[in-house]
Amino acid sequence: MNTLADRTGSFADTDGDGHADNRLVFTWTGSSSSLRSTIVNAIDDLVSSVQFDRVSLQVANDPYGFVSGITPEYYELSSSADGQTVNFQLEFRGAVAQGSEDEVYTLTLNVIGDDTVLLDTLDIYVLVPGSSY
Fold it and tell me: Containing domain of residue 10, as a range?
């Protein structure tokens, strides 16, 4: 198990020293409730150990090109960024001609950590008012 943890980079701060340098390998003996505690504590340690150097915002589905820009391109985070709020500004353009009825388009925004990890998603809606207004 130690070799598997080493080869997969499975480390977390399980001893509370502030460094994610402990293998995620656990030995368990006892009741099912102690196993449950061991697993919950290991997951909590892992989640608490995850840090990202960079966070960016990407539009997952915008086939019409409503979003013309995202500012800033990304945020560089420090190790003390736990709980930090980051704000992105989206620029939109009229990408669809007005029809006779209102049309609603759904875009999905993805928050990405270190260019690879999906941290969160948010659906936003673009309303193109119909010409009856």
Answer: 2-49
Does one domain contain both 9 and 62?
no
Q: Are residues 78 and 108 in the same domain?
A: yes
CA distance 133 to 105: 18
Distance separating the N- and C-terminal Cα atoms of the chain = 66
* Residue whose C-alpha is closest to residue 106's, from 56, 53, 71, 67: 67
Q: Which residue bears the tokens 């939109």?
A: 92
User: How many separate helices (H) and strands (E) can be counted in the chain?
Assistant: 2, 8
pLDDT in tens, the chain (133 residues): 889 888 888 887 778 787 778 888 877 776 677 777 778 877 777 666 667 888 999 998 899 999 999 999 998 887 655 667 889 999 999 888 888 999 999 999 999 988 888 888 999 999 999 987 5
Amino acid at 12: A
Same domain, 72 and 99: yes
The β-bridge partners of 75 are 55
Asked whether residue 83 falls in the same domain as residue 116, the answer is yes
